[in-house]
Each structure stands twice: as C-alpha cells, then as structure tokens.
Specification:
126 residues; mainly beta; seven-stranded mixed beta sheet; globular
Length: 126
C-alpha cells in the first residue's frame, strides 16, 4: 500500500522558515509528479506548488511564489517544500500529493490525484 507521510510542521514566528518533507513509499517514485497543498480552518484545499517527475520543472501559486520552494530527491523517494518569510495567513494543514500524470494536473482544482498524505500542521505566530 502506497503511503505519503508529511513531516516538518510546527509553530514558527512570522518571518521565519520551515521545510516540510514528504516521504513516499511507491515503488517508482520518479513516475509521479508531486504537489503541495494546504487547508486552513473553514477554507477549501489550496494548491501551492508542483514539481515534474524528473524535478526539472516547477509551478507555484501566486500566493507563495517567491517565498516557497518545491524540490524532490528521487533517489530518496522524497519531496520537500521550503517555506520562507512565513506569514500568519500561512497557518494551515499542509498536504503532499502524488500524480502519475502531468504536474499541471495539480492546478486544476479537482484534487483527483493518485495519493495524498495525512497532512502536517503549520502554525505561524505573529
């Protein structure tokens, strides 16, 4: 059974940084594009960033472009989200997802991806 497990969340002061990790258990991790999402209380799930299967192409939502960086290490079956200059509005549960199709599928808003993690809480204190 494939699992995605996020880690690295926690409480951080505004202006600080965190790096989230997503450990994947699928047999061929490089077959999957990876994406990061978040969901704040009372709001829908929001797309943040996506990366292609070989890591060569990335895409960001306007809300995090220039502050967050998505990356992956196919040899270690892991994806990452480096979050800089965090703001109180970044407080949410953060999820990673895997999709065997094109990485831009993460931007459609349909959230119909192959696998999801269970989420990790990020709280930004002001």
């Amino acid at each position: 059974q494939v699992q995605l497990v996020e880690s690295g969340g926690g409480v951080v002061q505004a202006g600080g940084s965190l790096t989230l990790s997503c450990a994947a258990s699928m047999h061929v991790f490089s077959d999957y594009a990876m994406g990061w999402f978040r969901q704040a209380p009372g709001k829908g799930r929001e797309f943040l960033a996506a990366i292609s299967q070989n890591g060569g192409t990335t895409y960001y939502s306007n809300s995090v472009k220039g502050r967050f960086i998505i990356s992956r290490n196919n040899a270690e079956n892991a994806a990452y989200l480096r979050m800089n200059n965090l703001k109180s509005e970044d407080t949410a549960v953060y999820y990673c997802a895997a999709d065997s199709g094109h990485f831009l599928r993460f931007t459609t808003g349909k959230h119909e991806h192959d696998y999801w993690g269970q989420g990790t809480q990020v709280t930004v204190s002001s």
